[in-house]
Write a structure and sequence with these properties.
- Pfam families: Lipoxygenase.
- About 1% of the residues have low confidence.
- A hairpin with a 2-residue loop joins strand 3 and strand 4.
- Helix content is 49%, strand content 6%.
- By secondary structure, the chain is mainly α.
- Helix 6 crosses helix 9 and helix 12 runs antiparallel to helix 14.
- The strands form two sheets. Strands 1-2-5-6-7 form a five-stranded antiparallel β-sheet, with helices on both faces. The chain has a two-stranded antiparallel sheet with strand order 3-4.
Length: 445
């Protein structure tokens, strides 16, 4: 890149109000913080009540960011400090692109919930090991030092999002459930009828992903399997059950968290529509467990509430969770500096070393940018035969009670959609990724 504006020459098609907003606001701390709540990867931040020992942020470092009337300790105690930790990226091998070695960092990012309700970054460390070669970057640093530090965090977001939250925790986990459903449940079983629409095209799209993206020399290659293995090793049942995950991360009260608000409504609607009986599903659960071994994941189901929660978790993962991490990729990633897919220079080891020129030399090159923008656009294209959540074109149930429950589910989804659309009218960036009309029944793209 000769200059930053040259990125417009690549990002020159399918511009939307959101892509234009991103291009105009990507440098702002408030927009950076906003994306942890309502971006394409809104499931990372945790409430921080005590700073990690490997992130030695001092009160003096963040005093100017927090304001005169409070302190770091006060804000920790009030629950206004949040942490995004990318330790999972430690030791992940980086790719080679255009014959040049790329680089990966494992940053930590501290964020503050301001009295205005906005979430902003107040400190960034670009490695898990503090020391002279790993400074803590602050908003008070030089403009390009701070922008580069935030860009490294956005790059970490890209890596964890694509390999773990998107590929592993929707596509591949949903495949395990789809196979278990097709192999273990008789076609006449009510759970088979309930779950079959949520398996549509999952196997097909995953074959394409393995063939085109994960093959040797594909767009996503080196390090992805390492990262997915790490993601699998730390996966828990709680993290897949949406209300439990919200509570466990301590983000149940943070304002303007539309991903949480909409997700809880969708989860509740699915849960209320579920049900069934325990018989004939133990083999289904055991088949899933042959593939998945996360902590706390039930290998058998001993009660109706356990079964309903289990079914809700899967239906939510293959529909709403996938929509949340998939549908906004182009909106938020088309302006490449906001969601870079690689970094060509290692993280800075000192402050005051970054300029616009060195920044341009670090972010992805022109051809890499073109490839990833095209990929994100394809992933977000609306399929010609989409079936939104709650749409059942094939009638598997003929009994009156299941039909009544389906109609009630569809009515609740329509109400949720109306509420979301009404709320979005007053937002500068509408959050529509969990609008039921935008959610596919299955992981199909």
């Amino acid at each position: 890149w000769a200059k930053l504006d040259d990125i417009n020459k690549v990002f020159c098609f399918n511009k939307t109000p959101i892509t234009e907003y991103v291009r105009a606001h990507w440098r702002e701390d408030t927009f950076f913080g906003y994306q942890f709540l309502n971006g394409v990867h809104p499931m990372v931040i945790r409430r921080c009540t005590e700073l990690p020992c490997n992130f030695p942020v001092t009160p003096a470092m963040v005093a100017s960011s927090l304001g005169e009337s409070t302190s770091l300790q006060d804000e920790l105690e009030k629950g206004n400090i949040f942490l995004a930790d990318y330790k999972i990226l430690e030791g992940v091998p980086a790719n080679t692109i255009n014959g040049y070695q790329q680089y990966i960092a494992a940053p930590l990012c501290l964020l503050h919930l301001q009295p205005s309700g906005e979430l902003v970054p107040v400190a960034i460390q670009l490695s898990q090991c503090p020391g002279p070669d790993s400074p803590i970057f602050l908003p008070s640093d030089s403009e390009w030092d701070w922008i580069l530090a935030k860009t490294w965090v956005r790059y970490a977001e890209f890596l964890v999002h694509e390999a773990v939250s998107h590929l592993l925790l929707t596509h591949l986990i949903d495949e395990a459930f789809a196979l278990a459903t097709l192999r273990q449940l008789p076609m006449c079983h009510p759970l088979f009828k309930l779950l079959l629409p949520h398996t549509r095209y999952t196997l097909h799209i995953n074959v394409l992903a393995r063939t085109l993206l994960l093959r040797r020399g594909g767009i996503i290659e080196k390090g992805t399997k390492v990262l997915m293995a790490k993601g699998m090793s730390c996966l828990t049942y709680t993290s897949l059950c949406f209300p439990d995950d919200i509570q466990e991360r301590g983000v149940d009260c943070i304002p303007n968290y539309y991903y949480r608000d909409d997700g809880l409504k969708i989860w509740s609607a699915i849960e209320r529509s579920g049900g069934g009986r325990r018989e004939a599903v133990q083999g289904w659960a055991r088949t899933v467990m042959c593939t998945l071994h996360p902590a706390g994941f039930p290998s058998s189901l001993q009660s109706i509430p356990e079964l309903i929660k289990y079914l809700t978790m899967w239906i939510y993962c293959c529909s709403a969770r996938h929509a949340a991490v998939n549908n906004g990729q182009y909106d938020l990633g088309a302006w490449m500096p906001n969601f870079p897919s690689s970094m060509r220079n290692p993280p800075p080891q000192a402050k005051g070393t970054t300029s616009l020129e060195s920044y341009l030399d670090t972010i992805p090159e022109v051809n890499s940018t073109s490839h990833i923008i095209f990929t994100l656009w394809v992933l977000c294209c609306e399929p010609g035969d989409s079936r939104s959540l709650g749409t059942y074109s094939d009638e598997h149930f003929t009994e009156e009670e299941p039909k009544r429950q389906i109609a009630a589910f569809q009515g609740r989804l329509a109400q949720i959609s109306q509420e979301i659309q009404e709320r979005n009218k007053s937002l500068p960036i509408p959050y529509r990724y969990l609008d039921p009309h935008q959610i596919e029944n299955s992981t199909s793209i």
